[in-house]
Amino acid sequence: MAHDDLLDLKAERDDWQTTKRSPKKVETTVKESPSGSGGMFAIIVSLILAVLLAGMGYWVADQFDRVYDQFDRTNQQINLLSQRVQVLEGKLDISNDSVASSEAAFRATLKEHDSEIRKLWGVSYDRNRKSIQDQEKEIASLKASSKSVKSQTDKISASLTKVDQKVNELTKLKLSDALASIRQDIKQSSDLINALSQKINPYLPKLEEYQASITANTKQIKDLNDELLRSVTDLQIQLNDDSLDKEVNKLSKLIESIDKNRTRVNAELVKLSGKVNDLQKKIGSQK
Question: Who contacts 4 (Cβ-Cβ below 8 Å, separation ≥6)?
Fold first, then answer.
């Protein structure tokens, strides 16, 4: 609306300037005045009014030109701002497309990592499951054998106690009878020790083999644990996702359970190995 008004004003100004620059010749008929001085005064006044009107018209035209120039500059600034807004909108659209593309690529990478973790865990579990089950069976067998060894050890302890009693009774019994009785007790103890050695010796290589196998499996589980923890750490840095955190917590708990089970088995094997070593020392001292 303001722009149309300014255009109308400009058209009127142009018409005014055209009229001002090309004035029509007006034929005036000067009536003869009875007084020549009165006619001259009217002409002077008319000239003064014409000059004033011309000056006023020029001033109005100049002001209109300034306003119109200011209006043109304002329009140019508006057009420039409009172009900048269009450029910014284009950049914003490109940024939105880039963000959407990055998000899709990131989710695809996350899905791929999740699949790889599942595969690694499945392969490790399938590969070590049979070995772990066999080790559990062997450990159960070793526990049963340890009970038998303990029973034999109790018998040996009882026999040794009897020997001590016989030694204490040497002062009361005849030397020959006491020595014969002691020899008999020693022979019985030796027979028991030999029988116990025959039972223990077959298990010693297996025990060492089981310890080596458990050590290898422990290293394997530790390497897998380190690999899983590295993968999980990388995924947590890329994205803080609740579902992924739950999956990682489950894996961590499962790994902790495996470590606890491994620690418990190692402790039992250490105890059993200590008992076997003690028995070997006792057997060596008796010989």
Answer: none
